[in-house]
Structure formats: structure tokens, C-alpha cells
Amino acid sequence: MKPNLTGMSVAELVERFAALGIGQYQAEIRGDTPGENKLLREMWKVTDELQGRAGDQRSALLDLYTHPNAQVRLMAAKLTLALAPVAARQILQAIRDSKEQPQAMDAGMCLRLLDQGIFKPT
């Protein structure tokens, strides 16, 4: 049974986002690419729900910048670049510099695409 995102509080959505990020990390360890992709789509749904709320509540994801899991931090930073570009870039840079793979490679690629103007956050 899929959760009713519209019935969740902002705090519950942030908690769900973090849980999905941890799940994505675990799927990656198992080599379960379809599982990773499914969890990514669920993360986007949570982000869309937050964005659609009054005042664009994606800013609540900034609390995940200090999460212990690198995948959660990575996704929170990538999906809040439009709201907090300086802070999100700092998180992406820190992940890149940590050399914790594969998140460091993903963060580095995101920074490169930003710098080249190929990726434009929304």
C-alpha cells in the first residue's frame, strides 16, 4: 500500500524522504538498479508534494543536509539547489571531497553540470 502523501505533515514527508534515501543507498549496495530507480521516483513524488504546498515546503529538506547517510544528503542537496543554491553546493562539494563512493562521483558530476550550465535546478 502506497502512503497518502497529501495526508502527511511536512515533518512526515521529510522523514519519508530520508527513509527512501536510505533505501536507495541499500539498493545500490545490493546492485539493485531497478530498486534504486523506483525509490528515486518516490523521492521525486515527495519533493513534488512539498513543492506544491503553500510557500514551497521543499526548504524542510535542508534539515537533511546533516543526515549521517551520504545518499540522503546528496539527494536533499540536489533537490533543493533552486531554493538554497549556496548551501546545497557546499553540501555537494563536501560529499565530493569525502570521496565516499558512489555519492562523491554523483556530487562531482552534479557540480560539473551546474558549472557548465547544463543542469538548471528548478
Structure description:
By secondary structure, the protein is mainly α. The chain has a single domain, classed as Phosphatidylinositol 3-kinase, accessory domain (PIK) (Serine Threonine Protein Phosphatase 5, Tetratricopeptide repeat, Alpha Horseshoe), CATH 1.25.40.70. It has helices spanning 10-30, 33-52, 70-78, 85-98, 103-115. The chain is globular and about 40 Å long. The N and C termini lie far apart (30 Å). The model has no long low-confidence stretch (mean pLDDT 94).
Give descriptors for this structure.
122 residues; mainly alpha; Serine Threonine Protein Phosphatase 5, Tetratricopeptide repeat; 63% helix; globular
SSE layout:
Layout: H1 10-30, H2 33-52, H3 70-78, H4 85-98, H5 103-115
- Classified in CATH, the superfamily is Phosphatidylinositol 3-kinase, accessory domain (PIK)
Major sheet, described briefly? Answer: none
CATH topology group: Serine Threonine Protein Phosphatase 5, Tetratricopeptide repeat
How much helix is in the residues? Answer: 55-70%
Q: Which architecture does the CATH hierarchy give at level 2?
A: Alpha Horseshoe
Secondary structure: number of strands: 0
Oligomeric nature of the chains: single chain
Q: Give the overall silhouette.
A: globular
Structural class of the helix and strand makeup?
A: mainly alpha
- Averaging pLDDT over every residue, what do you get? 94
Low-confidence stretches: none
Strand residue content? under 5%
Number of separate domains? 1
Order of helices and strands: HHHHH
Radius of gyration: 14 Å
CA-to-CA gap between the ends?
A: 30 Å
Count of helices? 5
CATH class: Mainly Alpha
